[in-house]
Design brief:
This is Peptidase M28 domain-containing protein. The protein is α/β, with parallel strands linked by helices. It folds into two domains: about 270 residues, Aminopeptidase; about 160 residues, Glucose Oxidase, domain 1 (3-Layer(bba) Sandwich). About 30% of the residues lie in helices and about 25% in strands. The protein is built from 13 helices and 21 strands. The longest helix is centred in the C-terminal third of the chain and has 20 residues. The chain is globular. The termini are far apart. About 50% of the residues are buried.
Length: about 475
């Protein structure tokens, strides 16, 4: 099909539905409602929908305690920008301890034993090219602020803080506005830390840092609970090919998310399923809406959440005796993202009027050429990124790790992990992106597998070297000592 477009009323209806659900944190009621919503749409197309029920320990704030997140110093209530997910809990009564300010990229946690540590975290511009390479080196990524990276690096110290006897941790943001910092669900990739932690920003960050320098007392409440019977569902469905059914193309997104960009990829999965059911392709197309992207440690020990589906269902992709063989994958995340930025001179945060720079991966040179031919979204030639020895952002990474050639859209605006609502989506851009994925899918279906290319796998030594380089860059960019 040369022309494919999504009805804009359909897009708006889906976005309004996401807005009505609010954040869809892994295993929450709203998360499950979205999964059921997509399942019903696929079933209405006549697709047989399969479910994988995933069990995990679900951490969440106690809904019955309206004062369950609170910080008070010298009688002053301090605005908490966000709570560190899966950090820990103080219980409903909280903890009242002395504040200790710790400095440096690797804090000496023992100095805050028995108290509350205060650590500065800086949202500096990060040299994105250090993590994401491009196929065309003349179009390398520049510097960009990305709250996820410094928050994750800072969070790596919580285990050491707990072992050192620290009661709780307050991370004080620098280089980010209070509006940008508010509601950031960061970081989301670490295991349960068993030590409560929160973020503060703006004037409140200044106040907390000064109070810690003076050794003031603080009362912190993080009344979180752990549900040992938490569940979430990955759903998936196959549309059989009409001439090469033993070969498969995986079309993937995830269902858990924080706002109407993270994650709205289900819109693409539903529309492509509608297309393929109406006009079956030569190859079998498998649509996977995976759960656990915001709780990766609960579903897999490596990679991202789709790793679990790949582990549980090798018969659909691995190519062993009697198994189907995945020749390619399309990964659809963060559709229609508008760009938002902080303006330090005006102390404001909001849309720039531009689309967020598209982070679009291809794992082979042949798929890069295909993107350059079929990706028509912003009026400019697409910048195509390449997986590297350390990481491919988003749910395309599990496919890359298994050697499945893939194209993945995983744009990373600053608000990506914020649970705060906003006017984040450009409907026309979303339409063009889904239409581009439709063209890619149909072109891939006509390509012999040897023309799709082979993923170049990396060695453990290359991965280790890349990790050390990234840690060095983050250590120099993210934490600030003054």
């Amino acid at each position: 099909m040369e022309f494919f477009a999504v009805d804009h009323d359909t897009i708006r209806a889906e976005l309004m539905y996401l807005e009505s659900l609010g954040s869809r944190i892994s295993g929450s009621k709203s998360h499950d409602q979205l999964v059921e919503h997509v399942k019903q749409q696929w079933a209405d197309f006549g697709m047989r929908v399969h479910e994988d029920v995933l069990h995990f320990d679900r951490w969440s704030m106690a809904a019955e305690n309206p004062d369950g997140l609170r910080l008070k110093i010298d009688g002053r209530d301090i605005a908490i920008s966000s709570v560190f997910p899966y950090s820990g809990t103080t219980g409903p009564l909280g903890t009242e301890k002395q504040l200790y300010r710790l400095r440096g990229p690797i804090p000496r946690w023992s100095k805050a034993r028995g108290g509350i540590a205060v650590v500065e975290v800086r949202n500096r511009e990060f040299p994105f090219d250090a993590a994401v390479k491009t196929w065309d080196r003349a179009r390398a990524w520049g510097k960009t602020p990305m709250p996820l990276l410094p928050a994750t690096f800072a969070g790596l110290g919580l285990a050491r803080a707990r072992r050192a006897g620290v009661e709780a941790v307050i991370f004080a943001w620098r280089g980010i506005s209070t509006c940008n910092a508010k509601g950031q669900y960061l970081p989301f990739t670490l295991p349960y830390q068993n030590i409560p932690a929160v973020f503060v920003a703006g004037d409140d960050a200044d106040f907390v840092l000064d109070a810690a320098s003076l050794g003031r007392q603080a009362m912190l409440i993080v009344d979180a609970v752990i549900d040992r019977d938490g569940t979430m569902r990955t759903i998936w469905a196959a549309v059989e090919g009409n001439s090469a059914a033993h070969e498969t193309v995986l079309v993937v997104s995830h269902s858990d998310g924080t706002n109407i960009v993270e994650e709205n990829g289900h819109i693409g999965l539903v529309e492509l399923a509608r297309l393929v059911v109406a006009q079956p392709l030569a190859r079998t197309v498998i649509f996977v809406l995976t759960a656990g992207h915001l709780r990766i440690p609960a579903v897999t020990d490596y990679g991202q959440a789709t790793s679990r589906w790949l582990r549980d269902h090798p018969q659909w992709w691995a190519g062993g005796p009697g198994d189907r063989h995945a020749v390619a994958g399309l990964v659809i995340e963060h559709l229609g993202a508008r760009e938002y930025r902080d303006n330090p001179l005006k102390n404001t945060y909001g849309p720039t009027g531009n689309p967020a720079p598209e982070l679009l991966y291809a794992s082979t040179a042949q798929l890069t050429a295909l993107i350059e031919s079929e990706w028509r979204t912003t009026g400019q030639a697409p910048r195509v990124s390449a997986p590297n020895a350390l990481i491919q952002f988003g749910e395309g990474q599990p496919l890359y790790l298994k050697g499945i050639p893939n194209i993945a859209l995983v744009t990373v605006p600053q608000y990506l992990l914020s649970i705060e609502p906003g006017d984040y989506v450009d409907v026309a851009l979303l339409d063009r992106q889904v239409s581009s994925f439709a063209r890619l899918l149909q072109r891939i279906d006509t390509m012999p597998s040897n023309e799709i290319g082979t993923v170049k796998m990396t060695t453990p030594l290359a991965k280790a070297a890349a990790a050390l380089r990234a840690i060095g860059i983050l250590a120099g960019s993210s934490l600030h000592c003054r």
